[in-house]
Prior knowledge:
heterodimer; A: mainly beta; six-stranded mixed β-sheet; three-stranded antiparallel β-sheet; 0% helix; globular; B: mainly beta; seven-stranded mixed β-sheet; four-stranded antiparallel β-sheet
Amino acid sequence: QSALAQPASVSGSPGQSVTISCTGTGSDVGRYKFVSWYQQHPGKAPKLILYDVSNRPSGVSNRFSGAKSVNTASLVISGLQPEDEADYYCSSYTTTSTLLFGTGTRVIVL
Amino acid sequence: EVQLIESGGGFIQPGRSLTLSCAASGLRVNSNYMTWVRQAPGKGLEWVSILYSEGSTYYADSVRGRFTVSRDSSKNTIYLGMSSLKVADTAIYYCARGSIEMGGTAFDIWGQGTAVTVSS
């Protein structure tokens, strides 16, 4: 069970958009729609921001959007704001009925 | 208010056993998918185990055979029994609820975490 691959960090200026990729295999990301994204600020518990690839839970900003192509899911943060600076993790259900998290991406707001 | 509160963490020697608890309020643990996720110091999230509402359980390869997830419906609490602990098990352990409305594998409610340190 190898973690899903994410870039270590991405950066952007306020108002810009950034994209975070999440690459898995045909046994996880490529197989199911059950891809979620989490935001984690330092010292805090993770917060769910997207589920089923592109659905936002109630209360989550529409600046967060998601998509998937073959074995890679992506999270787009548009209109970057200072409070978006955090760590982001993807997760996926797998063919062995387990879950995998991504390696995590630090978003830096310049 | 829906809340999950973990407890039971602490400092423990390698090879020993420890049980973590996660007390729920505002939701019923036997009607939800409950999961454990851990985060080693300075590292990313690692999924540990899940207990489905019908009772089935699944584990990450790194803990299978050593960890056991269970629940006590009367106490509305889930547990993570950890045995043969290793230094690599040092982490903050979070319990979370998998929302059935969101497919069950999206964790929308999290506890504050409990820290486990395994060291000699």
